[in-house]
Amino acid sequence: MSPRAYVLSFLSLTIAGFTLIAALGLAVDGYGVFGTRLISEARFPSNLRLLKHGDRITKAIEIAQRQGDRILILGDSRTQHGIDPDAPALDGVKGYNAALAAATLAEQLVALDYTLAHEPSIKRIVWGLSFEAFPYPIPTQTDFADSAFAGHSVAHGLLRHLFAFDRALASWKALLQARHKVRAPMKRNGVVTYSGDPVQGPLVAKYFEGELAGTSRNLQGPMSTEEIAKAEASFSAKLRELKAKGIDVDLVIVPVHVWRLEFLRLIDVEPQSDAWKRWLASTVATLGNAPGTGQTRIFDFARPHPFVEQPVYGPLPPGERRYYLETSHFYPWLGDKILAKVFGKVDEEDDSPPFGCQVDASNVERDIATANADLGSWEATHPADVAKVKQLIGR
Q1: Integer Cα distance of 235 and 359 in angstroms
Q2: Which tens digit of pLDDT belongs to each residue from 122-172?
Q3: What pLDDT digit, counting tens, does each position of 241-266 carry?
Q4: Rounded-to-integer distance, Cα 92 and Cα 319, Å
Q5: Which candidate, 204, 55, 76, places its Cα nearest to that of 136?
């Protein structure tokens, strides 16, 4: 074979290979970004997509493609797992969950600006806040730097969906699963979805123990006061900007399991979290004098409650579903209760004792005091759980 023929053959095979890879990606369209999925609805529902842990590339494409959203949901992985825009409390108003796994406030601000630039119809934001994720820079271990959030084009992201090895491999696996049904753990409205009943039995304890022990390796004590102050300044400026634009903001301090509340107390982060809640209340109070028609409210769910105190080792109360995957992440059916409170759709018979409370400058001290006292009461009646948390975090 002559050199020229060899080169032409090589080029032909290369083009054919890339064509097959592209055809696979378009036919499967596992992440729902091309609108070309050929797998039947019964085997791969059109409202679902595959989940990649980093998720920035796909979510930036989704946001750029969507139209008509009026509600935006922001936050980290807790919000991404637990707050569903299809919840009954939204009454069918179209919304999108732009929360990102491991997203700090700095990255949430970027996602917010990007979304508002693409979707000017948004009139309300539900912002899931986690103090643990508040005062840090944008994480580097995700695909943020390769996404449109970081300035890349949407076309760049689409090409990665066709030709990147991990996306091509995911498309191939989805094609193989389609003989039965594709396991797609995310809805195309941005929230993680769960089929069937949540994990029960000994595996629950394994998840709780492993997750909390792993967290304690990264968070061992109070956070940097300088970083907290820097994040607070950025957040305050953004809230003023949103108010001036006439956008309503519901700040939702998301719930965590009581084991995690105990963990934060044991490593002395609880006082910082309490001070942060006071700062939020004070900041929202000062917004009253700022220009604009947007309304800003705070709801605190990071406090003891029977939903938060579900046993890890013992049986659940009769008729109750498990609300937590582990100490950090809650299921969407608990998120539905959060949204019912925020949107004023609570069934009073179902809300006793009340789950979460609206906080402002007039009641923030009472909110903090009762939350701390309730955790103390739980400690007194659950010494074995307290001992277990201490063991897991090495205290």
Answers
A1: 18
A2: 999 999 999 999 999 998 889 999 999 999 999 999 999 999 999 999 999
A3: 999 999 999 999 999 999 999 999 99
A4: 28
A5: 76
Dist. CA 182–CA 28, nearest whole Å: 10
Q: At 241, is the secondary structure helix, strand, or coil?
A: helix
| Cα distances (angstroms) measured from residue 59 to each of 41, 98, 100 | 22, 7, 9
Euclidean distance between CA atoms 358 and 371, whole angstroms: 13
> pLDDT by residue (tens digit) across 166-223?
999 999 999 999 999 999 999 999 999 987 777 777 888 999 999 999 988 888 899 9
Residue ranges per structural domain of the chain: 197-393
pTM confidence score: 0.95
Which residues pair with residue 48 across a beta bridge? 187
The neighbouring-strand residues paired with 187 are 48
- Reference 239, options 229, 251, 226; nearest CA is 251
CA distance 23 to 5: 27
CB 137 within 8 A of CB 105: no
Backbone angles phi, psi at 279, to 5 degrees: -65, -45
